[in-house]
Amino acid sequence: MSRMIFVNLPVADLTKSMAFYESQGFTNNPHFTDETAACMVLSETIHVMLLTHAKWRTFTDRPIPPADTSEVMLALSCESRVAVDAMCEAASANGGTADINPPQDHGFMYGRALADPDGHVWESFWMDPAAIPSDAAAN
């Protein structure tokens, strides 16, 4: 069995967050969704659990960080530069914020960062491994 990742995120408005993630290509798994949580599926191995603040607090006593802070940036690979741009456009049109950091274009790799409605940071990126320069790690 392949290992799976479940990214758990606290959200202020479950319905709004579900709509946002659907705009990013995720689908809802109703078997793990109720009025306090939603399982949003990107692939067989990548899932995002959207948890209301009340539900989140049943897992940890740690505070929920304010939306204008960052603790982690989750990066999702895309099939093309066009797909990277489409994710950012969909984010802006569905309650998120595109280009929270300057876009990165290194020729062989292109990426843009976005935030969901609760400020969780995602980076969409495209990379052509065949075009990576031999000195790329030094940059």
Automatic annotation (TrEMBL):
Where do the VOC domain residues begin and end? 3-127
Question: Which UniProt keywords are listed?
Answer: Lyase
Please give one Gene Ontology molecular function term for this protein: lyase activity
Decide whether keyword Membrane is in the record: no
Keyword Lyase attributed? yes
PANTHER family from the entry? BLR2408 PROTEIN (PTHR36503:SF2), BLR2520 PROTEIN (PTHR36503)
Please identify the protein, giving its name as recorded. Answer: Lactoylglutathione lyase
